[in-house]
Model the fold of this input.
Amino acid sequence: MTAVIADTSPLNYLVLIGEVDLLAELYREVLVPEAVIAELSDPDTPTRVGLWARNLPSWIDVRPTPVSDERLDRLDEGERAAILLAESLPAAVLLLIDDAEGRAEAERRNIAVTGTLGVLRAAGLRELVDLPAALARLSATNFRSPVALVEELIAEYRQRQSLHPPV
Done:
């Protein structure tokens, strides 16, 4: 079974748009380094996110922040901790991370990655979420992604809906 580890950004945005429970439906359990919980609990985070981080659901498994690796110093603490936690596990891993530099470093280390959009796409494919509505809520936050990518995800979702309409 694949272990799923989350960095700060996907958790933050999924909480903000009211879709964080998709993680439990898709992956059952998500491992989160203490450093990520600290970032989510920062006083500058949105109130909703901080409240969620202080009242974690049972499917979140908080893990100690691994000892740092100086080769990761250019990344923020949450990204470093998530990558190091992924490397420390003997099982296959999927890392949820949005930051381009963090994703690139994880991929250099042969860690499978996806981000907020990938989680929403997976949930849309399993008909767990109204993908266009979730993406609209996401675009109302400060999340940034190429417009063409979002349009592609919506087109894919609508095409799938036309081929397999909900019962």
Notes: The beta strands are 3-6, 30-33, 60-63, 93-96, 112-114. The first helix runs from residue 8 to 16. The radius of gyration is 16 Å.
